[in-house]
């Protein structure tokens, strides 16, 4: 029988809890089992939050952290997911740089389970927490390039074009923003901008222009990494 210790069961507070490597491994294995809900949801959230901050402080290795968060592929409780969403917000700029495909793919695999759980369509009867959980899951799934997420954004746009009255509730700005965030060339961004200018109202175009400008700035920062420094010759 697997035995391990989780401190401060069902409580949260202003402290971090670290364990020895053996206990971390046992916790990770248990979280990845079918019995993970036997650890209280507050503790599941605390474990992820503590592990991240301990990793940042060089008190926990990154492989242990990645192993721990892999359990989230079966997690559906928003409380347990909340620290991970916060971590993604904190580390958002990191994923814009080349060489981070492994991490994006890894997180996409974890997010996929939650996306399947919440789906893409809102149910009028569902609560606000479920709606927010969906918005966060789809936000990051689209940001990291989930193909189905992009496909659904395109479907929604086409539905709006075909029947604006029926599908007017869909937020076109969000869909266009998802597309822009996954473009990696200024030329393509200019094409999107031109398309929106010809097809959408002025306020939508202005909003998209802001997103395009922001994306171009991000791409400029990324491309700058590969530029050789200019060496001034002195005579």
From TrEMBL:
Signal peptide: none annotated. One of its GO terms (cellular component) is extracellular space. Keywords: Aminopeptidase, Hydrolase, Protease. One of its GO terms (biological process) is proteolysis. Residues 11-165 form the ERAP1-like C-terminal domain. InterPro entries: ERAP1-like_C_dom, Peptidase_M1_aminopeptidases. The keyword Protease applies. It holds the Pfam family ERAP1_C. Gene3D superfamilies: 1.25.50.20. One of its GO terms (molecular function) is metalloaminopeptidase activity. PANTHER family: AMINOPEPTIDASE, PROTEASE M1 ZINC METALLOPROTEASE. Belongs to the peptidase M1 family. This is Aminopeptidase n.
């Amino acid at each position: 029988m697997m035995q391990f210790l989780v401190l401060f069961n069902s409580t949260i507070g202003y402290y971090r809890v670290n364990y020895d490597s053996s206990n971390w491994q046992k916790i990770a294995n248990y979280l990845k089992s079918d019995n993970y809900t036997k650890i209280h949801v507050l503790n599941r959230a605390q474990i992820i939050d503590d592990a991240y901050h301990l990793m940042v402080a060089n008190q926990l290795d990154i492989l242990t952290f990645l192993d721990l968060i892999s359990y989230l592929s079966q997690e559906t409780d928003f409380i347990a997911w909340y620290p991970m969403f916060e971590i993604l917000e904190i580390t958002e700029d990191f994923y814009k740089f080349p060489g981070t495909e492994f991490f994006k793919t890894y997180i996409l695999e974890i997010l996929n389970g939650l996306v399947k759980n919440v789906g893409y369509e809102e149910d009028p009867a569902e609560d606000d927490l479920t709606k927010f959980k969906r918005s966060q899951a789809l936000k990051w799934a689209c940001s990291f390039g989930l193909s189905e997420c992009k496909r659904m954004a395109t479907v929604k746009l086409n539905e709006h074009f075909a029947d604006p009255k029926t599908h007017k509730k869909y937020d076109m700005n969000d869909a266009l923003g998802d597309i822009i965030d996954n473009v990696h060339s200024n030329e393509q961004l200019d094409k999107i901008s031109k398309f929106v200018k010809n097809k959408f109202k002025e306020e939508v175009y202005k909003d998209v222009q802001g997103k395009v400008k922001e994306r171009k700035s991000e791409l400029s920062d990324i491309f700058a990494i590969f530029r050789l420094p200019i060496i001034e010759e002195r005579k």
